[in-house]
Each structure stands twice: as C-alpha cells, then as structure tokens.
Amino acid sequence: MNEKMTISMARNIFFGGSLFFVLVFLGLTLGTMRSLPERDHRENITPQVALGKKVWEDNNCVGCHTLLGEGAYFAPELGNVYLRRGGKDGGIDFIKDWIRAQPSGVEGRRQMPQFNLTEEELDAVATFLKWTSEINTAGWPPNIEG
C-alpha cells in the first residue's frame, strides 16, 4: 500500500467529501421543509398573532428573552410561557398581568421595563406567545421552566 497521498487522492477526498456533505445538507433541508407545515401550525397565524410578533420585535423583547432558543439569555425563555403559566386556565391573563405589573420592584431580581402597551398590544403579545407555545419544537425547551 502506498503511504504517500498524491495530489489526485487529496483532490478526490476533497470533492467526494464536499459532495457527501452537500447531499446531507440537501437531505436535511428537504426533510425540514416537508415537516414544517405539520409542526408550526401556520394555519393558526391570525392578524392578532402577526401584530403580537410586531410588538415583540418593535420592543426588542428578544434583546433580553429567548424564544425557542433564539435571543438573549438575560431573561426567561418564553417559547412555552403560555403553557408554563396556566395554558387554557389563565395563560393569556397571566402574560398580560405580568407585563402590566412590570417593573416588579422586587430587590435583587432583574427588572423588566414597563412598555406601556395598549390593551390591543397586550392581547396580541399574549396571543403571539400562545401561538409560539403550541409549535411542535420536538421537546424544546428541555424543561417546563425553559
């Protein structure tokens, strides 16, 4: 066996490896694109959910919170806050009351600023977080507290 790698061998390894990883990437992309409609329940995106996402973005909530693992880790993950704080039994009310009550003034705790959202904006953010909580994330976050 020849122990010396030739330029031809190195080229074949490079092109073969590149082709292999391009095919893996395309396969994973295709699999993701096929499964997304079943997992993200996009049929439930209403104008109110869209407004909630806009309020979320306009107030840079992701600057402190994470949403489905994306964002800053200064404040809690909110991908499942609706389920974590009551779900059908008060999740929407909890989210709205929590936002209204900020800053909490509890010493030693991080404080969320008061954004002075209107009732329509509060409803929209809570609805957006409810919609987010219902996405099939394959078990993310790994525990109920995010």
TrEMBL record:
Signal peptide: none annotated. InterPro entries: Cyt_c-like_dom (IPR009056), Cyt_c-like_dom_sf (IPR036909). Residues 47-133 form the Cytochrome c domain. GO terms for molecular function: electron transfer activity; heme binding; metal ion binding; nitric oxide reductase activity. The keyword Metal-binding applies. It comes from the Bacteria. Its EC number is 1.7.2.5. Pfam families: Cytochrom_C. Keywords: Heme, Iron, Metal-binding, Oxidoreductase. This is Nitric oxide reductase, NorC subunit apoprotein. The lineage of its organism: Bacteria, Pseudomonadati, Pseudomonadota, Magnetococcia, Magnetococcales.
